[in-house]
Amino acid sequence: MEMTPYQLANNTPLTLSPNFILPEDKRPNLSEVLPSDSIPIIDLNDHDIDDGQGPSPLVSKISQACEEYGFFQIINHEVPRELCQKVLAVVTEFFQLPPEERAQYLTKDHSKQVKVFNYYQKYEGIGKVTMWSETFSHPWHPTENFTHLLPTNPPQYREVFAEYARAIGVLFDRLLSLISRGLGLDKDCLKRRIGEKPGLHTIANYYPACPDPELTMGLPDHNDLGSIAVLLQVEGVTGLQVIKDGKWLTVDPVPDAFVINLADQTQFRSAGHRAVANKLLPRLSLGMFYTPNNDTVIGPIEDLIDEEHPPKYRRYSFKEHMEEFYRQEGRRRRVKEAFELQR
Ligand code: OGA
Ligand code: NI
Asked: What sequence ranges are listed for the domain Fe2OG dioxygenase (predicted)?
């Protein structure tokens, strides 16, 4: 089947030309990927009474999933299905705008909050390989008005996103309190620790259909850097994979579910994950990230430390951590944004 290639915002057609083909040992090796019956699916309607008599069944399930996987799906989360469908539709429309319209968000300035970019990786002797995706990133906020930062095209983008952000804000509060209780802490503890002004950003990844997903990668293996992410993926299109005990598992979309992903700063397991392209259909994922701000001091929570449980980490500010991270291993773990490909 002939496909018209997707046109990246920098006006490059996304094709299986050498710029987009991975060296053999970096390819996804899809025949080795296991189906994922094992990623927990947690029903937020599960029995949850906070009676001070130890964790409720829901809290136990969440804390077990946090500990074992750092990755799980939630259903019955009370974010309306229609709203999820609407936000996916409007973000898809954004990626389907003419490239010159998306190009206004290309930037070389890393501090820009609203931007379109393409991930790439650099390989010795080969140079740069651009990933099979395009990414749009911008801030969000559950209560403040942030929508003046967002595109006016598609016309419903701002309104739909504002509504979605409010709903996700409520969900984050609930998740942080469930996770806090799972740690035996009071329910506001994690939220308080992450800080008054968390960094809140959205990362929307669009993965056009790919004639041969074996040759490319949508988003290479990485761990998220912040604390927690709520990911919405379009139904019926696979692509997300998570590594567990050295094996890649698919995280297939479950209808009306969110994927919850704990990132480095929660000090649970932060699971390596990646996304591969789909042969037949474009795929969209929309991640809402909740990150400590630069001044937040991150360190072991005092209530969890005693003689038998000495701290495993020292205290540091998030900014300090990020600087050290980029010095040491940022290049290995977080793929770079392909600024050079831009006009
Ligand atoms: C991310 C991410 C997964 C996906 O943006 O950090 O892991 O399915 N996205 O696009
Ligand atoms: Ni990620």
From this structure: 198-292
